[in-house]
Q: What sequence folds into this?
């Protein structure tokens, strides 16, 4: 089965962290403690082989932490890959993609780190049912690419359940999710950037129903998480994310093509890093839809679908908004577009699959919600 293998081990700070006999991946603590936003490359050791990871996107965070994303090319038999990490006082929160392998790294205290399974392989992307189309009117947005860089400020509301259920630093996980989102924009040439506007923990007790929890998040004056609306204003947050722990799906957006009142998304902590779920949900707010085979609706943009590609006898790939290929494929940090190439293939087409254009049309609107 595709994606079922995880890299068998990890070495950080000179300690074996996994039970597997032979650690296959090593990230030197010395390198990460000296890491800053301008660090051009990090050395990673995979199965005894040094790999230079080149920086693609990085940021010094307000807390003094660092978010850093980079990649390396395939050489000979060795697969290329991507690394995104957040260094916080708790340690390293990271995701490593290599070929079809995906490794999620979490700090568990005392300088120790652990790998976690990723729930995106077990859970559906969303709860059943269509996400409603919001009030966004294509006629009301300017030409694509007209605005300068759109900085989308995100208020993260973590539930107490999520804090209790996550073994690492949940705020760092939120930053990792943001770093991965920003990598997708950078790779795709979308002039947009998400930043953490604030991180709060709500005592709200999750219902187990993601739709209900998201509705309660967005509804002012319903007696549930009502403090969020004042916090959103106070932090000038364009979008609000509920980071949660108990649901039967990875994520949900309130609307496809949202206005300010609908700019709310929910993401399950177990899916928050590795497969661009936050970028996917913000994509829905911007008006982006899934691949046209699974999601043939044409509002708000007929061309606004994700895209997947399945080559014969090889592992396929899918863009941020696409559901899985018929035989399974990995999600890549790209938006669909006829003008972007991945492994020599366009990641979309002009009439049905141009999510890059959707983002370029609506990013300024989202960044202007607060
Ligand atoms: Zn979706």
A:
């Amino acid at each position: 089965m595709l994606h079922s293998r995880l890299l068998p081990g990890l070495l950080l700070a000179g300690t074996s962290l996994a039970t597997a006999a032979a650690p296959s991946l090593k990230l030197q603590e010395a390198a990460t403690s000296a890491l800053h936003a301008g660090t051009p490359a990090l050395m990673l050791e995979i199965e005894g082989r040094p790999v230079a990871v080149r920086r693609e996107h990085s940021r010094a965070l307000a807390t003094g932490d660092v978010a850093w994303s980079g990649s390396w090319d395939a050489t000979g038999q060795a697969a290329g890959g991507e690394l995104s990490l957040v260094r916080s006082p708790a340690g390293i929160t990271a995701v490593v993609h290599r070929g079809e392998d995906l490794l999620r790294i979490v700090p568990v205290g005392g300088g120790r780190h652990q790998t976690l399974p990723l729930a995106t392989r077990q859970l559906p992307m969303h709860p059943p049912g269509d996400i409603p189309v919001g009030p966004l009117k294509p006629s009301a947005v300017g030409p694509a690419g007209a605005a300068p860089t759109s900085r989308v400020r995100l208020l993260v509301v973590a539930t107490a359940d999520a804090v209790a259920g996550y073994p690492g630093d949940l705020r760092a996980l939120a930053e990792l999710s943001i770093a991965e989102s920003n990598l997708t924009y950078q790779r795709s040439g979308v002039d947009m950037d998400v930043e953490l506007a604030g991180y709060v923990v709500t005592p709200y007790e999750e219902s187990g129903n993601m739709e209900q929890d998201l509705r309660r998040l967005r509804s002012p004056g319903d007696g549930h998480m009502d403090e969020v609306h004042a916090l959103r204003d106070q932090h000038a947050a364009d979008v609000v994310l509920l980071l949660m722990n108990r649901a039967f799906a990875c994520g949900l957006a309130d609307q496809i093509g949202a206005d300010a009142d609908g700019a709310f998304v929910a993401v399950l902590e177990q899916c928050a890093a590795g497969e661009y779920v936050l970028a996917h949900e913000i994509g829905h707010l911007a008006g982006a839809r899934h691949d046209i085979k699974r999601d043939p609706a044409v509002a708000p943009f007929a061309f606004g679908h994700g895209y997947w590609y399945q080559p014969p006898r090889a592992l396929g790939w899918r863009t941020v908004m696409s559901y899985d290929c018929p035989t399974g494929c990995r999600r890549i940090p790209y938006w669909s577009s006829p003008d972007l190439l991945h492994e020599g293939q366009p990641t979309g087409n002009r009439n049905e699959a141009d999510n890059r254009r959707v983002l370029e049309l609506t990013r300024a609107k989202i960044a202007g919600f607060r």
Notes: Helices lie at 29-33, 160-165, 170-188, 210-218, 227-234, 277-286, 355-367. The two ends are 45 Å apart (CA to CA). The longest strand covers residues 49-60.
